[in-house]
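pasting Alpha/beta hydrolase for the record, 274 residues
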Amino acid sequence: MPRIQTSGANATELYYYEQGKGQPVVLIHGWPLSHRMWESQITALSEAGYRVIAYDRRGFGQSGRPTAGYDYDTFAIDLNEIITQLDLRDVALAGFSMGGGEVARYIGRFGTSRLSKAMLLGAVPPFLLKTDDNPEGVDKSVFDGMLDGVRQDRVAFLGDFFPGFYNLDPDGKDGRELLAFSKWLAWEASPLATQQCIVAFGATDFRADLAKFDIPTLVAHGDKDQIVPLEVSGQRSHALIAGSRLEVVKGAPHGFAATHAQELNALMLDFLKS
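structre below
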């Protein structure tokens, strides 16, 4: 299986999946899933002539499970290891939800010399936590409640979490397979990583990172997102990134990479070709 070994403190192995040839597009998954969430996008992008690389964040999927390093500075270093060890250039980075934080922190720390474009898809930047200088944010009690739920009964928490992720009736027939698949992916993750990533995406401020974006950027978000609301994230990221393109997917929930896959794929391909 294709893997890279990271270096430095809290080193680990990162698993990645690669399909297609052409300009590289690196896909960064959301919490608490893995690279497998990108099935539709991997197919659509590779068939359109792109080299798609989707990797598992440390602690998730088939990557290593270290006991530390679940913070965005380390995640950005991990992403840089993927890009440099595979010697990727002219890269389009796409991050979904928590993965959008990796895109932002990577650019903030490493710049854009190896990049051509960026995509923030239902992403957590610029800053989710409500503070005195971020009054539009989410109250800390929300993240504390998530963390308590995962610590007390991770499996039960995830069972309750995913219907809101996709805006599905948990007792209905629609989406039963998608809910089962998502829980299976999430169950596979390290319990410690699942916990500590809540702290990371809930408390990390990406506003300074967004100020360093100097490449074409797509911000795509569902207007029915109950997990990372458009008003808190996508609209504000668009306002902070000069020249960015905002696409609001009507009726789409947080997990629109699955529920609105064809529409999202079309937006991504149009942006990549523009």
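The chain has one domain: 3-273.
The beta strands are 3-5, 13-19, 23-28, 50-55, 91-96, 115-121, 217-222, 245-249.
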